[in-house]
Amino acid sequence: MSSEHMQIGEVATRTELSLRTIRHYEDTGLVIPSARSQGGFRLYTESDVARLMVIRRMKPLGFTLDEMRALLEATDRLDTGEELPPEERKELLDRIRGFEQAAQKRVEDLRTELARAEEFAATLAERLTRTPTP
To answer: I need a labelling partner for 79 at 20 to 30 A (CA). Which of 34, 88, 105, 127 fits?
Structure first.
């Protein structure tokens, strides 16, 4: 095994994803191991780890697997290094911009939810300090 390749356990540790989750993302085609060892073990690169981190960051924002796939396809196409027709490049950038806007909106919604949760916890704490214990 080359030093640039990692086995799934190391990738799981680095991404804080379970082995099962990584395998699921492989089964759905979101990430494909870059290589296999002679023994058939999955081998990943830094690029694969970066891809998994994108997926991991999208998940708590409520993006679906299809949406994750659409974003990854757009970024993969832009990252090929080849000259793209201007219309295609614009469409890909517009797609990414749409995801950025959706992510910003979801972050805003999560901040609102967090503020409400903190307010509720503070209300409970205040209630406990006002209630005498026998």
So the answer is: 105
